[in-house]
């Protein structure tokens, strides 16, 4: 009987306590006292899971890319993230809110809070609030969230451990989301009290921090004054609701039901004009100004101003864009790219169909204005005939928000040109010349991508008569290579069959067997142990033309000149390349100034066979003429020529010395000093994470950047001559597309324009393709400038490699007195 009485007594006390809580809660807790300065709107955004997948797996998840772009937009537009405690301080007048505060909250304690969210927030200096259902936060084993079985099956996600860095980082304020995530109005009052009070204690015991705020599971009970009283009695200062339409929290907001707005994948930074209120910046601030771009047209004209529907490869076209703004005024970046995707149902994207590099224009729109602006494009000679489409995007001035993106077409149709034969004649080492048959021989020039020319080497010329030939001029100059050249000349040509004619005369050596060398065309040896003096029958005499037929299958005809041990440098006086079948001619005029330095490689499966010349001369053979054995002597160097070794310098910008897998040493970054090399001002930044798309991640983990740009950013004291400059880039900060665009100049010439590392590399922490350029230095110093563009992050570089293209002549060779030929 005593036991029964004691049981009834305990039950009666529990019921009375529950009734007292319920009765006392009807009126609700008194509002906090507020200062006259309170009332600043503070939006609270509610997130759940942020995934690394390419698409969200449920309505409660968004992708990392979308989340990162949202955070970048908040940063760019001046928002400051604050905590719920900060908000309470604004209410009671103990702190002044920033100009644009925002509170970021994350419910349920998913593991991606640590692996995905934390790195993004830390990169921007942002903070957030994490609400944990403490029964599901593990000590050693990660649990799967279980409060929504259907969701678990469709989109399984693991939860945090108490040891995860996110829970111990200043990036997050950790608060309560109950013990087991129940609907609080569906459980008993005693169970609700336990969920509220004990979850607070669990967090405080694990992390040693005070817990002052609560998030209602499912948002259930946010309007219950009974739960408000329970929260107040447990020591909380406030609580947040779930999904509401209003997100402005002022001094008069109920602290036990602060409204939040759920953010999903549909709240992207890409504006859907049919649903403007879903636009992310409009969710944060309903007053955010939105330009509404419509009535867009793109028209193609030729350079004479005639409207064109059909164009031909090699033509330069003028694309005129017209667009109207019916929304808020704004400065907008319009970007255009072209694609040869012939399926109108699949708009052109940044894929294999893209045929033009994105071009940009900054356009100022007022409300109700129509603006017209221009783009230009040279149709490559290799363009596929057929219709071409355009992709046109209108960005905000930060290049973060997209107000309009359209893909229409066809804009124009490329028609094939009438094929003609390729012809190129070169006066090696000399100037332009028209021969007695009216053929033009071009002045010698260095090779550049898409054209023709020599690769390194030196030149030498004489003024005497050349016997056995009428066009003496073609034999009075030459190009030679001290160490040989593979290749010595490159010609960008359509694939097909070609006749190659090489002209030689010995204008330097006085005897046979002094200069012997080999020649390869397209990887096949066509001259072996060739002696010009012996072949021509003496000095200052033209040798018989050497004529070869070759096949080209890689778009580039290469001619190698191989130095043989103990012999003088290989050389050539003139070259003629003639197509044996009709093919498109000329070289496309590039839109973008910079071109990567080619590394021509002959394909060794092409067969070259000597053919008789058109002139009555001996047919060349591919075997050496028997001659007396000679004793090797020191390599002769033309009189008046001084040679230094090829220059090499590799720099790990912003980092320390490093030896790569090929044994190359990358020097530690250092300031420039006269006679040396180094950076000019700037600052450094580095990370330790892995860099993909490269085996040499170390040189991408550090960088040098210039907040105001730099002219120059790096200086190298070098001998005058030709150099290959390789720039290495990876976007290691921040984690958002298109926040950094800049120009690069080398020796005063723009080689990269509005360069976007993130887009080029395909994302953050990925190595972009090397940017390789050939430059000539004539003032003893190679300068690299990094130009900051308005509205973008600072220019930067991760590593630099400067290589001399060959041994560098310090001064021009002076010919010895010309003997009389006879």
Task: Kindly list the characteristics that best describe this protein.
eight-stranded parallel sheet, Jelly Rolls, disordered N terminus, alpha+beta, disordered C terminus, TIM Barrel, elongated, Immunoglobulin-like
Describe the 3D structure:
This protein has 822 residues and is of the alpha+beta class. The chain has 4 domains: 283 residues, TIM Barrel (Alpha-Beta Barrel); 122 residues, Immunoglobulin-like, CATH 2.60.40; 188 residues, Jelly Rolls, CATH 2.60.120; 159 residues, Jelly Rolls, CATH 2.60.120.430. Strands 1, 4, 5, 6, 7, 8, 9 and 10 form an 8-stranded parallel β-sheet that branches. A 7-stranded mixed β-sheet has the order 20-21-19-32-26-29-33, with no helix packed on it. Strands 36-37-35-48-42-45 form a 6-stranded mixed β-sheet, with no helix packed on it. Strand 17 and strand 18 form a beta hairpin. Helix 2 runs parallel beside helix 4 and helix 6 packs parallel to helix 7. The longest helix has 24 residues. The radius of gyration is 37 Å and the shape is elongated.
Concise overview:
By secondary structure, the chain is of the alpha+beta class.
Strand tally:
49
Question: Low-confidence parts, pLDDT < 50 over ≥5 residues?
Answer: 1-40, 342-352, 583-645, 807-822
Tally of individual domains:
4
Assign the structural class, choosing from mainly alpha, mainly beta, alpha/beta, alpha+beta, or little secondary structure: alpha+beta
CATH architecture of the largest domain, by name, is Alpha-Beta Barrel
State the end-to-end distance.
143 Å
The CATH topology of the largest domain comes to TIM Barrel
Largest sheet: 8 strands, parallel
**Individual helix count:** 10
Mass-distribution shape: elongated
Considering DSSP H and I runs of 4 or more, what fraction of the residues is helical? 10-25%
**Global Rg:** 37 Å
Average the pLDDT over all residues and give the rounded result.
Answer: 80
CATH class of the largest domain: Alpha Beta
> Which superfamily, in CATH terms, is the homologous superfamily of the largest domain?
Glycoside hydrolase/deacetylase
Q: Say what oligomer this is.
A: single chain
Task: Kindly estimate the percentage of residues that lie in beta strands according to DSSP.
Answer: 25-35%
């Amino acid at each position: 009987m005593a036991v029964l009485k004691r049981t009834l007594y305990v039950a009666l006390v529990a019921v009375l306590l529950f009734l007292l809580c319920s009765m006392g809660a009807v009126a609700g807790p008194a509002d906090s006292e507020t200062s006259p300065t309170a009332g600043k709107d503070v939006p609270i955004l509610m997130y759940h899971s942020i995934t690394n997948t390419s698409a969200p797996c449920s309505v409660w998840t968004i992708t990392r890319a979308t989340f990162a772009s949202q955070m970048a937009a908040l940063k760019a537009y001046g928002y400051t993230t604050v905590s719920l405690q900060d908000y309470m301080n604004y209410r009671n007048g103990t702190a002044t809110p920033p100009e644009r505060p925002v509170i970021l909250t994350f419910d349920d304690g998913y593991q991606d809070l640590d692996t995905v969210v934390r790195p993004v927030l830390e990169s921007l200096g942002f903070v957030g609030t994490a609400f944990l259902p403490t029964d599901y936060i593990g000590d050693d084993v990660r649990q799967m969230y279980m409060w929504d079985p259907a969701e678990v099956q469709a989109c399984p996600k693991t939860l945090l451990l108490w040891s995860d860095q996110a829970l111990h980082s200043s990036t997050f304020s950790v608060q309560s989301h109950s013990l087991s995530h129940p609907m609080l109005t569906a459980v008993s009052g005693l169970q609700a009290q336990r969920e509220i009070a004990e979850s607070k204690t669990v967090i405080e015991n694990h992390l040693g921090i005070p817990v002052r705020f609560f998030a209602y599971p499912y948002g259930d009970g946010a309007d219950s004054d009974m739960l408000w009283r329970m929260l107040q009695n447990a020591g909380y200062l406030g609580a947040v609701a779930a999904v509401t339409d209003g997100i402005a929290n002022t001094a008069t907001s109920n602290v036990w039901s602060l409204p939040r707005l759920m953010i999903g994948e549909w709240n992207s930074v890409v504006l859907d004009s049919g649903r403007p209120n879903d636009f992310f910046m409009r969710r944060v601030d309903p007053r955010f100004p939105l330009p509404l771009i419509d009535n867009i047209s793109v028209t193609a004209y030729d350079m004479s101003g005639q409207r064109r529907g059909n164009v031909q490869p090699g033509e330069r076209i003028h694309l005129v864009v017209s667009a109207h703004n019916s929304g808020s005024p704004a400065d907008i970046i319009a970007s255009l790219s072209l694609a040869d995707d012939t399926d109108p149902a699949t708009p052109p994207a940044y894929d294999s169909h893209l045929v033009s590099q994105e071009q940009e224009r900054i356009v100022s729109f007022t409300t109700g204005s129509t603006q017209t602006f221009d783009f230009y494009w040279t149709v490559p000679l290799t363009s596929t005939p057929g219709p071409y489409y355009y992709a046109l995007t209108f960005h905000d001035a930060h290049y973060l928000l997209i107000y309009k993106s359209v893909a229409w077409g066809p804009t124009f149709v490329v028609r094939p040109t009438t094929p003609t034969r390729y012809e190129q004649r070169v006066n090696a080492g000399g100037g332009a010349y028209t021969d007695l048959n009216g053929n033009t021989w071009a002045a010698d020039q260095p090779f550049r991508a898409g054209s023709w020319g020599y690769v390194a080497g030196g030149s030498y010329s004489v003024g005497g008569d050349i016997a056995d030939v009428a066009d003496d001029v073609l034999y009075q100059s030459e190009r030679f290579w001290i160490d040989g050249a593979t290749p010595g000349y490159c010609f960008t040509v359509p694939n097909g069959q070609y006749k190659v004619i090489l002209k030689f005369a010995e204008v330097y050596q006085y005897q046979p067997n002094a200069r012997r060398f080999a020649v390869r065309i397209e990887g096949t040896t066509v001259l072996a142990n060739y002696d010009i003096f012996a072949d021509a029958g003496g000095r200052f005499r033209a040798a018989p033309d050497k004529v070869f037929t070759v096949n080209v299958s890689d778009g580039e005809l290469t001619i190698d000149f191989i130095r043989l041990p103990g012999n003088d440098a290989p050389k050539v006086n003139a070259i003629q390349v003639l197509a044996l079948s009709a093919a498109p001619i000329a070289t496309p005029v590039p839109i973008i100034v910079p071109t990567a330095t080619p590394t021509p490689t002959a394909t060794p499966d092409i067969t070259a066979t000597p053919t008789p010349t058109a002139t009555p001369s001996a047919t060349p053979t591919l075997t050496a003429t028997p001659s007396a054995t000679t004793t090797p002597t020191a390599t002769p160097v033309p009189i008046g020529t001084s040679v230094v070794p090829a220059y090499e310098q590799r720099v790990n910008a912003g980092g320390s010395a490093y030896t790569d897998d090929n044994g190359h040493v990358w020097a530690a970054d250092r300031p420039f000093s006269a006679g040396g090399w180094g950076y000019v001002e700037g600052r450094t930044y580095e990370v330790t994470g892995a860099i993909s798309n490269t085996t040499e991640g170390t040189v991408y983990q550090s960088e040098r950047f210039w907040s105001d740009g730099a002219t120059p950013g790096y200086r190298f004291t070098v001998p005058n001559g030709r150099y290959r400059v390789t720039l290495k880039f990876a976007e290691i900060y921040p984690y958002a597309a298109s926040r950094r665009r800049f120009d690069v100049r080398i020796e005063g010439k723009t080689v990269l324009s509005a360069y976007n590392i993130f887009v080029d590399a395909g994302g953050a922490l990925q190595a972009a393709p090397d940017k390789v350029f050939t430059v000539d230095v004539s003032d003893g110093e190679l300068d690299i400038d990094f130009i900051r563009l308005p509205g973008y992050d600072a220019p930067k570089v991760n590593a630099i490699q400067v290589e001399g293209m060959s041994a560098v002549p310090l001064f021009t060779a002076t010919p010895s007195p010309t003997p009389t030929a006879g």
